[in-house]
Amino acid sequence: MIIALLVVAAAPAAPPPKPAPMSAIDAERAFAADAQKIGQWTAFRKWSTPDALMFTPQPVRAHDFVGKLKDPEHAVWWWPGRSYVSCDGRVAINTGPWVRGFGKSVGYFTTVWVRQPDGSWKWTYDAGDELKFARDEGGDIKPVIAACGKRPPAPAVPAAPASFRKPVKSGSGTSLDRTLVWSWVVDSTGARRFVAQLWDGKVWQPVIDDKVAAAP
Prior knowledge:
Blueprint: H1 24-37, H2 40-47, E1 48-55, E2 59-61, H3 62-66, E3 77-78, E4 82-85, E5 91-100, E6 105-115, E7 121-131, E8 144-145, E9 169-174, E10 180-186, E11 192-199, E12 204-212
Parallel strand pairs: 1-7, 4-8
Antiparallel strand pairs: 1-2, 3-5, 4-5, 5-6, 6-7, 9-10, 10-11, 11-12
Helix pairs in contact: 1-2
């Protein structure tokens, strides 16, 4: 008797699904977690672009500034409270609360994030200020995304306030699709203003307007 053997080849296993790309909100949270894990200034260097700016109160290259600093024993803690993203998803601006010294001082931050060619995020602008009372922001927030479609007209760049003392330094940036723009200005005393605008499909909406008083 001849017995025929039927060999059935196993179907190849389906590749595992690719993880969802990291959002700028995720990046902000990972940045803050790294500050606690690997050190505050070490995390600032890790998560910033080579040309990233900070204010001390004048604008400085972040890598030049934090490269000279030793990580503090207790890092500042912060979390995203709002997030605005360009239509093409390549630029985001986060803002939210920070806490230092176990609540002895509180304030807010604003960070401009740029998606890198490998899909990761790095920040290119970071600033903020101290407040008397903490902002009531955070939790399971969702990003506000700019409208897509026809390329919007260039927005008006806010002028330096009349109270600012010369000399005045300024800078600005925009997403490649021009749906999210920002600008900053600082005077000789350290007084500073940062404005971000998001295109809603009809008009430019001012979504962030940070005003920082002169340095004491």
